[in-house]
Amino acid sequence: MKSSLRITAVAAVTLAGAGLLAGCSSSGGDSGDGKVHITVASLIPGSDKAAFTAFDDRVKEFEKANPNIDIKSEEYQWTGPTFATQLAGGTLPDVFNVPFTDSQSLLQAGQLADITAEVKKLPYADKFNENVLAVAKSGDKIYGIPYGPYAMGLSYNREIFQKAGLDPDKPPTTWDEVRSAAKTISEKVPGVAGYMQMTQGNTGGWELTTTVYARGGRMETTDGGKTKVTTDNPVTKEALQWLHDLRWEDDSVGSNFLLDWSGINQAFGAGQIAMYPSGSDVLTSLVQQNNVDPANYGLTMLPIDSSNSDAGVLVGGNVAAVSPKSSQAQKEAAVKWIDFYYMQKLLDKDQAIADAKVLVKSNQPVGVPTLPVFDKATYDQNMEWITGEINVPQENVAPFTDKIFDASLVPEPNKHTQELYGALDSVVQAVLTDKNANIDQLLKKVDSDIQKLVDADK
Amino acid sequence: MTVTTHDRQLSRPRRTPLTWVRGGGLSSLLFLLPMLLIFGIFSWWPIVRSVVMSFQHTNLVSAPTWVGWDNFVQVVNDPLFWTAVGNTAWFAFLALLLGYPIPLIAAVLMSEVKRAKGLYSALAYLPVVVPPVVAVLLWKFFYDARPDGVFNTILGWVGIPPQPWIQSATQAMPSLVVEATWAAAGGTIIIYLAAITGVAPELYDAAEVDGAGIWRKIWHVTLPQLRSVLLITLILQIIGTAQVFLEPFLFTGGGPVDSTVTILLLIYRYAFQNSLGGDYGAATALSLMLAAFLAVLSLVYFRLTKSWSQN
Question: ipTM above 0.95?
Answer without folding.
Answer: no
